[in-house]
Write a structure and sequence with these properties.
The complex is a heterodimer of chains A (about 300) and B (about 130). With about 300 residues, chain A is mainly alpha-helical. Chain A is built from 13 helices and 4 strands. The longest helix of chain A has 27 residues. In chain A, about 50% of the residues are buried. Chain B has about 130 residues and is mainly beta. The chains are: A mainly alpha (about 300), B mainly beta (about 130).
């Protein structure tokens, strides 16, 4: 396969984790503009563990997911008492604090005669575990997509189970869910922790794909895109978030005619869809219609 | 072991690793067509020019790393030893992380941060946050 197609596929897979994490929070009835912070925490944490401490990638990924989940809970604990736009603004502020934290993070160790580790605004070079392991770009794309497929399958199964129904109930009418005996606050905390872990997994894989990360990688643009992907793709199914990524990165990136105007096209598409289909392309009604057609 | 001998051994052990570091210098000239640049890349390892490498060059925008991503191009050997030339077609001016992948006699992956505009390209400068 063409090297460019492989890189686009890998990017779709990596952004897929971020979109899925935003989708989970949306299903819980909240809108987060801060998922990029957990993506960044995953990238930094995973990169530091493999490049500085010599951990293998799978172990570092697990640790980074735990760090992402813990960070998400730390943000959610004080902010979940807010609602709607106030919660969205609070998550955005938390993400900016995390980005500034990355800019202030200077911690380098000597590895093979070279300083390796985060160097504030100068970034973090030398995250070479995958490169040193000799994994070709095609192999890495397979790894990313395998992880994404596993996560998507897990979420799809959970959606069809009681857990999914509970999540939608909490998201759509928290007062009614609470009246039915659900601990809405604790349930949302769990969902937000899972979304943080998911974003962190994407971050670890991104850092090892790039070999270099910097605080600017995790600014508000990334968070807005992650949220937009979930909203465009639709809230009716977990696959919606991935459709949103594929539409932006796959279609707009692939069709070079949009080149300089891509952000305008993407912004217009988001605005248009929010007016015409407020719950996205694959909303609940469409998913039910598709289900009836194939059952 | 006395302290001097220890430091001598440590320095000797570190020397080959330091000598193995790949250095890359990039110069780009604006072609006059929007966001298209003709670039010359010089590659060295331990002051020795790297010749015969297969160099693939891509670029990402640091502020939106996976969404603004240009098609990688293969660099061709230039006239000088260790020099490679390629044309880079970006999506917009601004800061780009130029990603170099080297295969052949040297296997390496490097990321260079450059600021591109209608005057050409120069290394991106970042102020440290205190």
């Amino acid at each position: 396969m063409d090297a460019y197609a492989v890189s686009v596929l890998t990017n779709i897979g990596l952004l897929g984790f971020l979109a899925l994490s935003a989708y989970l929070v949306l299903l819980a009835g909240e809108m987060s503009f801060g998922q990029q912070a957990f993506f960044g925490i995953g990238a930094y944490c995973g990169g530091m563990l493999t490049a500085m401490a010599g951990w293998p990638l799978p172990l570092a990924a697990l640790a980074a997911m735990a760090a992402g989940a813990a960070a998400a809970v730390a943000v959610a604990l004080p902010t979940l008492r807010l609602r709607g736009l106030y919660f969205a603004m609070a998550t955005l502020a938390a993400a900016e604090m995390a980005r500034i934290g990355f800019e202030l993070l200077h911690w380098q160790v000597e590895v093979a005669g070279e300083p390796v580790g985060p160097d504030g605004t100068q970034g973090f070079r030398g995250i070479r575990w995958v490169f040193e392991a000799g994994l070709a770009p095609e192999g890495y794309a397979v790894l990313v997509w395998t992880a994404l497929a596993a996560v998507t399958a897990l979420l799809a199964v959970a959606e069809r189970a009681r857990l999914g129904a509970t999540l939608r109930a909490v998201g759509e009418d928290p007062a009614l869910a609470a009246a039915l005996g659900l601990d809405v606050h604790r349930f949302k905390l769990g969902v937000i922790a899972a979304s943080g872990g998911l974003a962190a997994l994407g971050g670890v894989l991104f850092a090892h794909h790039n070999t270099y990360i910097e605080p600017r990688n995790f600014d508000v643009m990334l968070g807005v895109h992650g949220l937009a992907y979930a909203l465009i793709g639709g809230l009716g199914t977990v696959f919606g978030a991935l459709v949103g990524v594929a539409l932006d990165v796959g279609l707009l990136e692939g069709v070079r005619v949009f080149q300089g105007y891509r952000m305008i096209v993407f912004g217009g598409l988001v605005a248009l869809l929010l007016v015409l289909r407020p719950r996205g392309l694959l909303d609940e009604e469409t998913v039910r219609w598709i289900g009836r057609r194939f059952s | 072991m006395d302290r001097k001998a220890f430091f001598l051994i440590a320095a000797l052990a570190a020397a080959p690793a330091a000598a193995q570091r790949t250095e890359a210098q990039l110069e780009c000239r604006f072609t006059g067509t929007d966001f298209v640049y003709d670039c010359a890349l010089r590659l060295e390892r331990g002051a020795t020019p790297i010749e015969g490498a297969r160099v693939t060059v891509g670029a990402d925008m640091p502020s939106m790393p996976m969404a603004h991503h240009v098609r990688p191009v293969e660099a061709k050997p230039g006239a000088a030893p260790g020099e490679y030339r390629f044309r880079l077609a970006l999506e917009m001016p601004g800061e780009w992380a130029v990603k170099l992948r080297l295969d052949g006699p040297v296997r390496e992956q490097l990321v260079l941060r450059y600021e591109f505009d209608d005057k050409g390209a120069r290394p991106a400068v970042r102020r440290a946050r205190k």
